[in-house]
Design a protein that fits this description.
- The protein is α/β, with parallel strands linked by helices.
- Helices cover about 40% and strands about 15% of the residues.
- The protein is built from 14 helices and 13 strands.
- It has helices spanning about 15-25, 35-45, 55-60, 95-110, 125-140, 175-185, 200-230, 235-240, 265-275, 280-290, 290-305, 335-345, 360-365, 390-400, and strands at about 10, 30-35, 65, 80, 115, 145-150, 170, 195, 315-320, 350, 380-385, 400-410, 420-424.
- A 6-stranded parallel sheet has the order 3-2-1-4-5-6, sandwiched between helices.
Length: about 425
Amino acid sequence: MLPSSPKICIIGLGYVGLPLAAEFGKQIKTLGFDIHAARITALQQGIDHTLEVDKETLTQSKDLSFTSNENDIKNYDVYIVTVPTPITSAKQPDLTPLQKASELLGRVISKNAVVVFESTVFPGCTEEFCIPIIERASGLRFNRDFFAGYSPERINPGDKEHRVHNITKVTSGSTPEVADYVDALYARIVTAGTHKASSIKVAEAAKVIENTQRDINIALINELALIFKRLDIDTLEVLEAAGTKWNFLPFRPGLVGGHCISVDPYYLTYKAQQVGYNPEVILAGRRINDGMGAFVAESVVKMMTQRRVHVVGSRVLIMGLAFKENCPDLRNTRVVDIINELNTYHAEIDVYDPWVDPGQAAEEYNLNMVNEPAIGQYDAIILCVGHTQFRAMGAQQIRALGKPGAVVFDVKHILPKTEVDGRL
């Protein structure tokens, strides 16, 4: 019998898990678990380095608590798994976090518990990969002793308008009864409503194609930018003209990074190849998007060379390292592709991003960031991320960071066309 007033444990307290725990904690006894003790200590002090949940919410909710102790999460009614699902260097799904979370669940789960996965996966992963691990570790039998659901996360880091409660939630369950239960559980906190899928596989597939569709659309615009560059046509002007038609989609060229759009398609293509289908369009889009960083770097180098600036030993300022604007999230940022390409020319690179933790940048990418960019010292400036602070600076202040005649390249269309030397 599934309890009407369950105790909930959220496993993984990153950009997805913490906002979810905070929302459930407003109504239901909720325990947030993370393997990183330092993260738990910070949350108990009201500090969230992701900037997704404020101090008041973390410290004043009587039904929300946090732990890194495995023994504390035994005998909960509902476990919701929100661990990351990255890719390997070979661009294959890395299921290690899911495997470890499933092994953990097998050690702590009790009879009649419900496990809901929110991590983005390929269709079939929950029932074919995660559930068998839980069964082996627990000795319990699926759909007799414990149950499962899948409800894909739709968190958009840095977005203060679209939050857990006002984004429609897709839900599913391993039996009709569990599907109803999971749906009703999320309906308690999601005011925008829920959509109950007919199966866990359908819900998994729905999630993975959301970002695949967006990735392909951006790839098309990026490819158009590559074509228009060779035709000496401004891409944004073309898109603005085409956008006067009511059904033209307003995508823009750019770097495609982050934990979703640049990763999720590889989960779908992996599964497609497993069943004997080669997904040509999806993989072609991925190749285009993965090559945009190098294209930006090569464009800047070409402009520097045309101005007789010796690229070797030149100073280049990278403005923005996060994968998107107004957010400290560095996961899979494609700005590093620009940096890596420029390093092959032996340029001296300064990276400036007021949103990013320098320690995290050093740990994840071996980058030493500058606290403030030097004035009048750069041969080239590349605007990579559309942070509010950069937009507020304006062309004059940004150009003042460069030497006379410095190249200014605008990846994010922050400045007017007349104020930059190049843009996507």
